[in-house]
Each structure stands twice: as structure tokens, then as C-alpha cells.
Amino acid sequence: MATALITGASAGLGLEFAWQLATAKHDVVLVARNEERLTRLAAQLEAAAGIRAEVLVADLSVRADVERVADRLRATERPIGLLVNNAGLGLNQRFVTGDLAREETALALMVTAVMVLSHAAAGAMVERGRGAILNVASVAALLTSGTYSAHKAWVRVFTESLAVELRGTGVTATALNPGFVHTEFHARGEIDMTAYPEVAWLTAEDVVATGLADVRRGAVLSTPSLRYRTLSAAARIAPRSAVRAFGRYRRAYQGQDVELVTDATD
Fold first, then answer.
1. Fewer beta carbons within 10 Å, N or C terminal of the chain?
2. Where residue 206 sits, what CATH number does that domain have?
3. pLDDT (tens digit, 9 = 90+) per residue, 191-240?
4. What InterPro entries does the annotation carry (predicted)?
5. Does an H or E element contain 16, and which?
6. Is residue 258 included in any domain, yes or no?
7. How many domains does the chain have?
């Protein structure tokens, strides 16, 4: 079975990716900043699933750390057959009055790292004639929820473009576009989500299962749940003025201006 490398593997969707892939008897390379969490998770996966779990501690907002992970993706020993670019963060701030350094960190993590790691993985996989890249985007890519939407829009279009370039190589690229997911993401970002009803939420288990199933069938876009596929379709065909109006209404309803963040952090 192919080895999978998962970024942001210590929590949220990344943690669920690790468990589902290990249960399917894939060896895994776990990437995140928290060494204690990763080491504990690796031991649990090896004991429960009988697979090999490798720990790679890295802060993917730091270019030198990104390069270390890229080197692992290029390695010919225990080659990586699936890259899951999952690591992300939410910024609970306005852009104009917010901390620019935090914006630069988010950009490095959710755009630059995705590009660099995808480049490393695709090069190695094309040479072998097989492999898959799964980039976690978001339904927020179709909305106007601050720079988070901008980052995820980049991931979505980048992944679609990569899929076109990879056609016929034996390597695929898939963008996973979840909505709200029950993880610790929002709590860690101190983002109040109490205004959103339970019907808006998905489970990490379902999101990951859908994403991996779509990777197996070679889908380019993966949007878990009928409700979010419907929302995405509506956002794609709606006038952009209407999408912007929705963003203004949402912020007024919440009484604050925060980014709509929907996936898991490192």
C-alpha cells in the first residue's frame, strides 16, 4: 500500500485523515508543529493498525521547514503515494486593521506551502507514473470571507490547474471543499460559531471519507454533503454582487467581522 504524507496531522481533519488511512493499511508520515501530539499519535496508529507511522515536525509557515518536508516527498526510499495538504489556520481579525504579520503567516501556510509541497510531490509521482495529491480547500473559496477565502480560492483553482497538467501521467489532483466541520479548529482560533445551526455542520469522519473516495475515483473537486454541493452551485451561479452582499449580511448578523473558516489547523 502507498505511503501517505499528511500535513496538519495532529488535530482536526488531519488527525482523521491519519486514522482512516492507517486503518486502510497505509503507512503514514505525520507532519505538524506539535511533536508531543505527533509522537503519541504515531504510537497509537502503529499499535492499532499495524502500520508504520513516521513523525516529521515542521512549521509550514517557515520556508526551511517546508523544504525539509519537500525533501521527504522527493525521497525514493518509502516513496509517498498520497500527499494530503491539510494544514491551515483561521484569522479572527479584519484585514485593514489586523496584524499583517499574521496575514503573512497564513499566506505562507495555506498558499506557499501547498504550492511547494505539491511541486515536490508531483515531480516525484510523475516520474514513478502514479500518485495522488489532495489539497484541502473550502466552500469559503466561493465566498468573500476575508483573506481565508482568497487563500482557499487559490488552492481550489491551483488544484484544478494541476489536475489538467497531470492528465495522462497516472497522477491525480483533488481539491476537497468542506463546509463547517466539527473539529477544534474554531475554538483554537477563538472564533465564535454559535450563530450557526447544527444542520450546517459536518463530521470529520464523513468529510475525510468523502475526500478519500473521490481521490480513489480521480475526481478533481470533492464537496462533501448535498447541502454544501447545493450551496457551492448557488455561489458559482449567483452574481458576485449577491455573494458580496451575503458577506456583509453575515458580518452584520454576527456583530463582528471574522473570516469564515471551515477546515482544520496544524
1. N
2. 3.40.50.720
3. 444 444 445 558 889 999 999 999 999 999 999 866 666 665 655 666 76
4. NAD(P)-bd_dom_sf, SDR_fam
5. helix 12-23
6. no
7. 1
